[in-house]
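=== RUN LOG ===
request id: a7f3
mode: sequence -> structure
chains: 1
length: 58
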Amino acid sequence: MVDVHVMEALAEQGVTVLFKADAERMRDGGKPWTFVASGVPFHEDLLVRTTLPLWRPA
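=== RESULT ===
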């Protein structure tokens, strides 16, 4: 489950957050989750992006 509180806390600090679940990649067995963050706390040209493996609750 996405922690909306973390995303809100980042936004309050001037960070733009994108969390994406890609159904096509999930169907193909790929890594479906993408997290992207950018904004004031980072250097102007810095973009944080990661593609995450499928998360399953314990």
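=== NOTES ===
Residues 4-12 form the longest helix (9 residues).
The chain is about 25% helix and 35% strand.
=== END ===
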